[in-house]
Write a structure and sequence with these properties.
The chain is an alpha+beta fold. The protein is built from 21 helices and ten strands.
């Protein structure tokens, strides 16, 4: 026997099954490309050494782990599907005289060929489009120059080792199946799993309870920190619920429809429902996979997109002016202003606006017209997050000086400003002591600039004695003023960044405990974080979409091959071609649009929790988040329908040929 016999046989097998192996190889190429690109970006020296590069590197490292784990799961899943389709072919080899070791040798060459095509194809795409991918990342993190793209040997070696290991593991799994099976089992391999499943009400109820619990957590969680910690719990419950309801719940519903005789005993309904019941247990896992992957794509891409597109708005909410200098000690105002203006001139800038004031800051809980002081650490774990507000209290003298106003207040009078909605009452009470609200201020500079919460409450009182009295009513800690200085400058962002860094060094050296915040310095950090998250989200979205498309494609093929004989029998007993087409259309619409509808439902219930998590990143605009999610869902639906229409043609061709 020629030493190239097995290699030629493997090549012929791949050519003969190209309809299923070409998509499999394309998916493998995509996995290799994604893994290699994330590895290259993570190992890029310029990215590692840039400001906030450690955060971006951590994001890329997390993505690398996720892609690696997902590649293992998905390649094994696809391999098992392909092997099941070919068990009859492998059984014929055994009957025709090939020993099991010979069959395993053929499978080994097939795996090696697929591995080589995946790695070579993935690396070729990396060399062609890698620079473009790198430039996209640079654009997302707002870096225009200074970083050089190169594909290092370490990243190539790591990628090769990982995917060689994955594909060799699939060969081991294939060999075990061939080793333990006899030729008769292999010949019947494609027909396995076709028994009518029993209705499992226990699993159906469990699935409903898990899904309801996941939805309940998402809807009821208010605290952003709690949302982050409970997010994975909710995700796990939704995943379990989805698989249980697709596996057992779908059977229960179909059998309930089967009992409705007026509905069931119609030609199209009878064929569709009976056909789906007959194989639903086998279909359910694939459909649940499509649903979960679709949900992951929608949540991941829409969330990272919302963060990135809302970054400038979040920055301006957090930084109302270019530079903030604050400390729990008073500054010599003339000295500080002179220093800032001098350094601005050195940087080629001009100070266009400066504001200074002092206030007392903390957190409070609003219950009707009653204000209660909150300990910071307790508040971060509080379940009453909707009642928590970022709190500032200052004198009317400070307010008048900043805004050029001339308001007088009595001892029991205050001005108030509340975000995001108006306070809307005539009185306010601090630990039972009531104050009259003279005026509710429409807008104020003071609220919201601490960035702790999306809700703020500013109180303007008569004088420092009144402020200290109110403070002592609310808090146990000693009253202490915090001194703020804000500056705006003109000029380009590079000069502003250099100026901010210089001021940061000088002020910290002179005043020690001062806190310096800069719009431009933070913009660079935020772009690194949010741009990196969007880059990772886009890559993972592409990977999950490839997997979704391949699962849909495989499902259409498996459905078509199984349904072909059934519809031939139906035509022989009198079903017309038109009735066959209507039945086919109804069945695949019911099967393949169910995951999409469920995924959109998952995303809708996930919205409250996603909104809370994004709040921790400084994104407070609910409408912006909603529009990003709605836009991603709309684009995904269009894409899903295109994929469905393309893959449905494969199904029709198999059934009607």
């Amino acid at each position: 026997m020629s030493k190239f016999f097995y290699l030629k046989l493997a090549l012929n097998n791949l050519k003969r099954n190209k309809d299923t192996y070409i998509p499999y190889v394309i998916a493998g190429i995509g996995m290799v490309f994604t893994f290699l690109m994330l590895n290259v970006m993570m190992n890029n020296e310029g990215i590692r050494n840039m400001r906030n590069g450690d955060v971006l590197n951590t994001i890329l490292s997390l993505g690398l782990v996720v892609v690696g784990i997902f590649s293992v799961i998905f390649i094994i899943y696809a391999n098992n599907f392909l092997l099941k389709r070919r068990k009859k072919e492998l059984g014929l080899y055994a009957i025709l005289g090939l020993e099991k070791k010979h069959v395993m040798r053929v499978l080994f060459y097939e795996v090696i060929l697929i591995l080589l095509m995946s790695i070579i194809g993935g690396m070729a795409i990396s060399f062609i489009f890698g620079k473009l991918s790198f430039l996209i990342l640079m654009k997302m993190i707002n870096i225009s120059e200074g970083l050089i793209f190169s594909i290092d040997s370490s990243s190539i070696a790591t990628t090769c080792v990982v995917f060689v290991g994955i594909y060799l593991f699939t060969f081991i799994l294939n060999s075990i199946q061939v080793k333990i099976a006899n030729p008769i089992q292999l010949l019947k391999g494609e027909a396995e799993g076709e028994k009518v499943p029993k209705t499992s009400w226990i699993l159906t109820i469990l699935g409903f309870l898990c899904l309801s619990a996941g939805y309940y957590i998402s809807i009821t969680v208010k605290n952003p920190l709690a949302a982050i910690s409970l997010f994975f719990v909710a995700v796990l419950l939704v995943i379990i619920g989805t698989y249980a309801l697709f596996t057992a719940g779908s059977i229960a519903i179909l059998k309930m429809l089967q009992k409705k005789k007026k509905f069931y005993y119609k030609t199209n309904n009878f064929i569709s429902i009976s056909g789906m019941i007959y194989r639903m247990k086998q279909n359910a896992a694939g459909l649940a996979n499509i649903c979960i992957l679709s949900t992951m794509v929608l949540v991941m891409v829409s969330g990272t997109l919302a963060l990135f597109l809302g970054m400038e708005e979040s920055l301006r909410y957090r930084f109302p002016m270019d530079i903030e200098i604050s400390a729990y000690q008073s500054f010599n105002q003339q000295t500080l202003d002179a220093l800032v203006k001098k350094e601005a001139e050195k940087a080629g800038l001009h100070v266009t606006k400066d504001i200074y004031f002092k206030s007392m800051d903390s957190l409070v809980q609003i219950k009707g017209d009653e204000i209660e002081g909150m300990d910071f650490y307790f508040s971060m774990s509080s379940s009453n997050y909707d009642q928590l507000y970022d709190f500032k209290i200052l004198t009317v003298g400070e307010y008048n000086r900043v805004f050029g106003d001339d308001i007088d207040l009595k001892d029991n009078e205050v001005l108030i400003h509340q975000e995001p909605k108006k306070y809307g009452r005539d009185t306010i009470s601090f630990d039972g002591e009531e104050y009259q609200i003279k005026k509710e201020i429409e807008d104020t500079f003071f609220t919201g600039n601490s960035g702790n919460y999306d809700k703020g409450l500013t109180i303007i009182a008569k004088d420092e004695q009144t402020i200290e009295h109110i403070w002592n009513l609310l808090f146990l800690e000693e009253a202490q003023f915090k001194y703020y200085n804000y500056y705006n400058t003109d000029g380009d962002s590079n000069h502003k960044l250099a100026f901010a860094q210089k001021i940061n060094n000088i002020v910290k050296e002179r005043y020690g405990i001062s806190r310096i915040s800069s719009l431009e310095m933070s913009r660079q950090e935020w772009y690194s974080t949010y741009g990196g998250l969007l880059y990772l989200g886009s890559f993972l979205g592409i990977v999950f979409m490839m997997a979704t498309v391949l699962i849909i494609y495989f499902k259409q093929i498996s459905e078509g091959m199984v349904d072909r004989n059934r519809f031939i029998i139906m035509q022989k007993v009198g079903l017309s071609n038109e009735e066959v087409k209507v039945t086919i259309r109804k069945q695949i619409l019911m099967v393949f649009f169910l995951p999409l509808i469920t995924a959109v439902l998952h995303v809708a219930f996930a919205f409250p929790m996603v909104k809370r998590i994004l709040l921790m990143f400084g994104l407070t605009n609910t409408m912006h988040i909603l529009l990003c999610i709605a836009g991603c869902v709309a684009v995904f639906i269009v894409f899903y329908m295109i994929i469905y229409s393309k893959t449905a043609k494969v199904y029709y061709r198999l059934v009607q040929r």
